[in-house]
Specification:
Blueprint: H1 23-39, H2 47-51, H3 57-73, H4 87-99, H5 110-123, H6 135-148, H7 154-157, H8 167-183, H9 201-216, H10 223-235, H11 256-268, H12 275-285, H13 296-310, H14 312-329, H15 340-350
Length: 362
């Protein structure tokens, strides 16, 4: 049986109620509703973008098995160990649970969600707001907190224990940490550590997505922080859609990862009319058959979101191929690669089929 993602989960318009007690009134109302939905040219979007679509069984199977593995590997303290420990990995795994559409407060994975949130908040430096163990981790952890903010009932979060801080307080601290780090950076972006003076587009994209999600969640994020980071990304983008890794001067080498990141941050920040967005989107849509040799989970994670935001038809084609590959490469125990990072990122590459995370809204 296939699931369908509900409209409320991804910002779709609520379907209008039918009023009137007579059968004739109901018939007329239904007819008018059909006319609106099927003959109107006001929106060029595929209706499934707004109202949800059937989720392929192969996606559901991969996702269910992956979540079961993540749940079995979560520590009592709420984190995941094995090679890439830190708040960002915990955030990636947390988002995998949130993205499936399970009730975050009373669903079967609600305890896992609460434990992960507690682990992330407890790891945060109370004075600087830094979420360790690098600004990569900081960005992904901030993104996960933003996606949980408003969805998780905080009266249940600490389960009778003494609260460390609320999700909102943790986000506010994280935003301030990102702002402080950026002010000390001559490029207007971020690198590996809060005190780094150089920047790269990969770390900057991760932190920027966390900030954009926090702003979308209703947190106060200074426009200056967003604008400076976007300027750095734009300066790093060449006319051919390639994106430099560091240095802030456009292009210099083809990287699907970086072009996907640049496409995504431009789309989520509402800059789809920019020349840079058009260039990077063309760069990735012309290479849908690309197979990443290194960092393939990272590539799939960003490629899924960039295509969904920029070209829905291309995402549909790419998503079908990715679902097949992940279905064939998932281990018997439900994991991918060597641990939680690979498994969490692989699941998030498919999570747009569910469209429950607010950051997935178009």
């Amino acid at each position: 049986m296939m699931k369908t993602a509900p409209a409320a989960a991804h910002g779709g318009d609520a379907q209008p109620c039918l009023h009137g007690s007579s059968a004739f009134g109901i018939l007329i109302s239904s007819f008018l509703l059909c006319c609106v939905l099927f003959t109107s040219n006001v929106s060029a979007q595929d209706p499934s973008l707004r109202f949800g679509s059937a989720i392929p069984q192969e996606v559901d199977t991969v996702y269910e098995r992956g979540l079961a593995w993540l749940a079995s590997k979560q520590s009592d303290a709420g984190g995941w160990q094995g090679g890439h420990d830190g708040a960002g990995i915990d955030g990636i795994c947390l988002m995998a649970f949130l993205a499936s559409g399970e009730d975050p407060n009373f669903g079967r994975y609600a305890p896992n969600i609460r434990r992960a949130l507690r682990a992330i908040i407890r790891s945060q430096d109370a004075s600087s707001g830094y979420l360790p163990n690098s600004m990569y981790h900081h960005g992904f952890a901030m993104l996960s907190l933003s996606e949980a903010y408003g969805a998780v009932d905080e009266s249940l979060l600490w389960e009778g224990g003494k609260p460390v801080r609320t999700i909102g307080q943790a986000l506010d601290l994280a935003i301030r940490c990102a702002g402080t780090a950026q002010k000390a950076n001559r490029w207007g972006g971020w690198r590996y550590m809060p005190n780094s003076t150089d920047a790269d587009t990969s770390v900057t994209g991760a932190v920027l997505m966390g900030l954009l999600a926090a702003r979308n969640a209703g947190m106060a994020v200074p426009d200056e922080i967003i604008d400076n980071a976007l300027t750095y990304m734009k300066r790093s983008t060449g006319k051919d859609g390639s994106v430099a890794y560091a240095g802030g001067f456009g292009g210099f080498g083809e990287s699907m990862n970086r072009s996907a990141i640049a496409t995504l941050v431009a789309a989520v920040s509402k800059h789809k009319d920019s020349e840079e967005f058009k260039a990077t989107l063309q760069h990735i849509t012309e290479r849908l058959e690309h197979n990443e040799g290194s960092y393939k989970e990272y590539f799939r994670y960003y490629m899924a979101q960039a295509l969904f935001q920029g070209d829905y038809a291309s995402w549909q084609k790419w998503n079908a191929a990715t679902a097949r590959v992940l279905g064939e490469t998932q281990a018997a125990d439900g994991s991918f690669g060597s641990g939680a990072y690979e498994t969490g990122m692989s699941l998030l590459a498919l999570a747009l089929n569910y469209r429950f995370l607010p950051i997935y809204e178009r």
